[in-house]
Design a protein that fits this description.
The structure is a single chain. The chain has one domain. The chain has three helices and seven strands; from the N terminus they run ββαββαββαβ. A five-stranded antiparallel sheet has the order 1-4-3-5-6, with helices on both faces. A two-stranded parallel sheet has the order 2-7. By secondary structure, the chain is of the alpha+beta class.
Length: 113
């Protein structure tokens, strides 16, 4: 697992994907701190790492990154940690379009080609 605070190379994500799941890297994005954790077996592990580093679970959202796809298609919003009824998120996705856009913005800034 790795916490990305500044940037990560896209080819590093490709290597992580190939080593673990083949085509995807699990990631958890902290929309307040604008950082993310990557490369774990489960989103919950990355969530725990960020919480131990001072993040709030309310700010953490799980995604899958498919680094070999175009930036328009490379983020999948699907994680059990996204089930947050108290925030009106009742699915494994990210229901709020503002939060989805924030996640896309953070991932696109942190991942360098």
């Amino acid at each position: 697992m790795k916490v990305v605070q500044n940037e990560i190379a896209k080819n590093e994500l490709v290597k992580m994907a190939q080593a673990r799941f083949g085509t995807l890297v699990k990631a958890v994005v902290d929309i307040k701190k604008e950082i993310m954790a990557v490369d774990a077996e489960m989103h919950a592990d990355e969530e725990q790492l960020l919480i131990e580093d001072g993040s709030s679970s309310m700010d953490l959202w799980g995604i899958n990154i498919f680094p070999e796809l175009s930036r328009d298609d490379w983020i999948e919003f699907d994680s059990m940690i996204n089930l947050k009824p108290h925030l009106n998120n009742r699915s494994r996705g990210v229901d709020d379009p503002i939060i989805r856009e924030k996640i896309i913005e953070i991932v696109n800034r942190l991942v360098k080609a």
